[in-house]
Amino acid sequence: MKINTVLIISLTLIFCISGCKKEKTQQFEVTGIIQIRGVATYQYGTHTISNNSAFYALKSDNYKLDNYVNQTITIIGETISGYPLNGGPYFLNVIEVK
Questions:
Q1: Which position among 31, 48, 73, 93 has the lowest Cβ density within 10 Å, counted as fewest Cβ atoms?
Q2: Domain covering 23-97 assigned CATH 3.40.1190.20 in the classification
C-alpha cells in the first residue's frame, strides 16, 4: 500500500512539473511618446508608450519613467507574463531606454 501511494504521489509531481511551464518573455523595441498612465479600463503599469501603430503599458525597476514623460524615446521592454488582461495593452518591463 505504501509503495502505491509513493508511486502515485511521484507520478503526480512529475506530471505537474512537466505541465507547469514558465511562459517565455518576449522583447519589444518601441519608439513612441511616454505618458503617465492615468485613468484607464486596465489597471496595470505606471506609464504608457504609444505611436501610430502601437500602445503598451509600462513599468520599470531600472529607470524613472517620469523623466521621459511627453518625450519621444525608444525603449526595449520584456513582456510580463499574464498580460494583457481584459483587452488591455501588453505590459512591458522597461529594461533599456535609448
A1: 31
A2: no
